[in-house]
Design goal:
The protein has helices at 44-47, 70-73, 86-98, 113-125, 142-148, 164-170, 176-190, 213-226, 253-265, 301-309; strands spanning 31-39, 52-57, 82-84, 104-107, 132-136, 154-158, 201-207, 232-236, 271-273, 297-299. It is α/β, with parallel strands linked by helices and 310 residues long. It is globular, with a radius of gyration of 18 Å. It starts with 30 loop residues before the first strand and ends with a helix.
Length: 310
C-alpha cells in the first residue's frame, strides 16, 4: 500500500496524495507531526516512570464532532504540524528513547502508515529498543493495519460505540460502528493475549458519551462476550467538549454506579476506569510548545528543533 490511489483508511478516497491531492484526512503524502514529547496522561503501564513517548500526527480520517485534538485533526481547519521525512521521524523516536520514554506512542497515524513503517524500521536499525504503541481511533482498514502490525507491540485502540446513531452524532460517521468490529477481531486474532508487564497486547478504550449510557452498556456486554479474555478495558467517563458553546449533562452518580455494577456482573476485571472525581477538564493547545499541563508532559527537544527550523 502507498499514497497513490490511497486506500489506507475506510474512507477509500483513492486519490493520488503524491501529487498533492487530499482526501478526508486532509493530508498529502508528506508526514506532518503536530507534537512530540513525554506524556503522563496515558494508562499507567504505558507511562512508566517518565512518561510515554508521544508522536501526534496531523490530520485524521475520522473527524469527530467533539474531538479534543481538533486543532491538529483538521476538524477546525487549523492543521497544525510540521512536515518531517522518514529519517527525521526515526530520529524523533530515538530522541524520545534518550528522554527515557517507556514506549513510542504513535497517535492517529493511519493515514501515514507507509512512512511510519519506514521510520520504525530505520529507528530499530539505529538501535531503538522501545515498544511501539499504535494509538488509534479504531477507524482502520484491516488491510492497512496488516502492513504495520508486525512492528506494533501494544494497540491502544478506541471503540467509541457500536451504535450507528451514537457514531453519527459523536464520531463523524455512522460507518464507524460497521468498521470497528472487524478491526477488533483482526487485532484479537493477531494479539490474543495482553501482558502489559511485557508491553504486549491491546488496551481497548471506551469513552461514555453524554446521554448514551444504554449504548455503553451494550458495548460492555459485547466486550464481555468477545474480548474480555484478550483485551484490557479502559473505561473513560470524563467527556469534555472542546466547543465552549456546547453544554452536555454530566454523568450522574447513579449512572456511574450502574456501570461499576455491570462491570462486576460481567466479570470484566482487567483494565482501568476513570473516577468521576478525576477533574480532567483541560483541552490540549497545540499552538504551545507543550500543549498539556506542565505536570503531564515535556517536549521532545528534537521535535522542538524541527519546529524552530520551520
Amino acid at each position: 500500500m502507498d499514497y497513490t490511489g490511497c486506500e489506507l483508511c475506510p474512507n477509500m478516497c483513492r486519490i493520488d496524495r503524491t501529487r498533492g491531492e487530499k482526501g478526508v484526512c486532509l493530508m498529502s503524502d508528506k508526514v506532518k507531526v503536530a507534537w512530540s514529547g513525554l506524556h503522563k496522561g496515558e494508562e499507567p503501564p504505558l507511562v512508566g516512570k517518565y512518561g510515554s513517548g508521544m508522536i501526534f500526527f496531523t490530520g485524521c480520517p475520522l473527524h469527530c464532532a467533539y474531538c479534543q485534538n481538533r486543532q491538529i485533526s483538521g476538524s477546525d481547519g487549523m492543521n497544525i504540524g510540521y512536515e518531517v521525512s522518514s529519517d527525521e521521524l526515526s530520529e524523533m523516536m530515538l530522541s524520545l528513547e534518550e528522554m527515557k520514554a517507556s514506549s513510542i506512542n504513535l497517535v492517529t497515524g493511519t493515514h501515514f502508515i507507509p512512512s511510519i513503517k519506514d521510520a520504525i524500521i530505520k529507528a530499530k536499525e539505529k538501535g531503538l529498543g522501545l515498544p511501539i504503541v499504535w494509538n488509534s481511533s479504531g477507524y482502520e482498514r484491516v488491510e492497512a493495519l496488516n502492513e504495520i502490525d508486525d512492528l506494533i507491540d501494544v494497540y491502544l485502540l478506541d471503540c467509541k460505540s457500536l451504535s450507528r446513531n451514537v457514531c453519527s452524532l459523536f464520531c463523524g460517521s455512522k460507518k464507524y460502528a460497521d468498521v470497528i468490529i472487524p478491526v477488533m477481531d483482526y487485532i484479537k486474532e493477531r494479539h490474543p493475549v495482553t501482558d502489559l508487564d511485557k508491553m504486549s497486547g491491546t488496551i481497548l478504550r471506551h469513552l461514555v458519551f453524554p446521554g448514551t449510557i444504554e449504548a455503553t452498556k451494550n458495548f460492555l456486554r459485547y466486550f464481555a462476550s468477545h474480548y474480555k479474555n484478550n483485551f484490557y478495558l479502559s473505561l473513560m467517563v470524563q467527556f469534555v467538549p472542546p466547543l465552549k458553546n456546547v453544554d452536555f449533562p454530566k454523568m450522574t452518580d447513579d449512572e456511574y454506579d450502574e456501570l461499576v455494577e455491570l462491570l462486576e456482573e460481567l466479570e470484566i476485571d482487567d483494565g482501568f476506569m476513570q473516577d468521576r472525581g478525576d477533574e480532567i477538564l483541560w483541552i490540549p493547545d497545540f499552538t504551545k510548545d507543550v500543549p498539556f499541563p506542565p505536570s503531564f508532559a515535556s517536549v521532545n527537544p528534537y521535535f522542538l528543533s524541527l519546529k524552530e527550523r520551520s
